[in-house]
């Protein structure tokens, strides 16, 4: 089966925009007062999408020759163009996407790129546009090399990656509830709302791209619980709508941590440990800084008190009647 995924996604652009418009209108009517959409957040998401699309165009120019090399020299099979090969490619890429996505939540180097997608405290269709220009630097493309080894041509690899990501647009919404038996096979809005939440029971769960069977198979699946509504965003909130800060804040934090920790073991952790290590490290530094500030204030108060006592003593002595010898 041959297709041009880029043209397909370009044709879908009006559908994506229509979905955003419908969702904003629908939620304003059905859930008034809830800050599900914000102009600043939506414009930030759009800016991030445009940046990522431009970066991807350049990145594919460098990455496709790598896939071509593995395809020409190491492929173990040659797949003819057919629906069977498409289904095999679809399933294989979706499994590899699960691996990539799970690693992106467990390895800080990958998280530094992926965190952009999670940094909004809102969940709506426009959140799907919230992507990072840094995925090629982080190494997302490495996860698709096995597809070339399996015998899929580079253009097919690019196409299936784009189709997988295009599908995921439709799971970024609060306007659709649970979908029954579908959730045993496919990723859905309810399943993906869990993934974007920072609640203790939800965090680092539901990594599905299109098929949720991988989460169920590898033990990372959690149901959305109506008694525990998802709280969106990241553990260390970003508090900015600047797309450049959203893109690079974790890279800057990672570099600062790498420079400040001592010993190569902790330097390795600063780059490749789970993001929870960084959050814990920052919390410990903040606590140490707070203790130091408290001690400094206490010392300053004591010094002021001591100085005031000395002044008072000198003042009293100056007005005492001198004793005669």
Automatic annotation (TrEMBL):
<feature type="transmembrane region" description="Helical">
    <location>
        <begin position="80"/>
        <end position="100"/>
    </location>
</feature>
<dbReference type="InterPro" id="IPR006694">
    <property type="entry name" value="Fatty_acid_hydroxylase"/>
</dbReference>
<protein>
    <submittedName>
        <fullName>Sterol desaturase family protein</fullName>
    </submittedName>
</protein>
<feature type="domain" description="Fatty acid hydroxylase">
    <location>
        <begin position="86"/>
        <end position="220"/>
    </location>
</feature>
<keyword id="KW-1133">Transmembrane helix</keyword>
<feature type="compositionally biased region" description="Polar residues">
    <location>
        <begin position="302"/>
        <end position="319"/>
    </location>
</feature>
<keyword id="KW-0812">Transmembrane</keyword>
<dbReference type="GO" id="GO:0008610">
    <property type="term" value="P:lipid biosynthetic process"/>
</dbReference>
<dbReference type="GO" id="GO:0006643">
    <property type="term" value="P:membrane lipid metabolic process"/>
</dbReference>
<dbReference type="InterPro" id="IPR051689">
    <property type="entry name" value="Sterol_desaturase/TMEM195"/>
</dbReference>
<feature type="transmembrane region" description="Helical">
    <location>
        <begin position="133"/>
        <end position="153"/>
    </location>
</feature>
<keyword id="KW-0472">Membrane</keyword>
<dbReference type="GO" id="GO:0012505">
    <property type="term" value="C:endomembrane system"/>
</dbReference>
<dbReference type="GO" id="GO:0005506">
    <property type="term" value="F:iron ion binding"/>
</dbReference>
<dbReference type="GO" id="GO:0016020">
    <property type="term" value="C:membrane"/>
</dbReference>
<feature type="region of interest" description="Disordered">
    <location>
        <begin position="293"/>
        <end position="325"/>
    </location>
</feature>
<dbReference type="Pfam" id="PF04116">
    <property type="entry name" value="FA_hydroxylase"/>
</dbReference>
<keyword id="KW-0443">Lipid metabolism</keyword>
<keyword id="KW-0560">Oxidoreductase</keyword>
<feature type="transmembrane region" description="Helical">
    <location>
        <begin position="6"/>
        <end position="25"/>
    </location>
</feature>
<dbReference type="GO" id="GO:0050479">
    <property type="term" value="F:glyceryl-ether monooxygenase activity"/>
</dbReference>
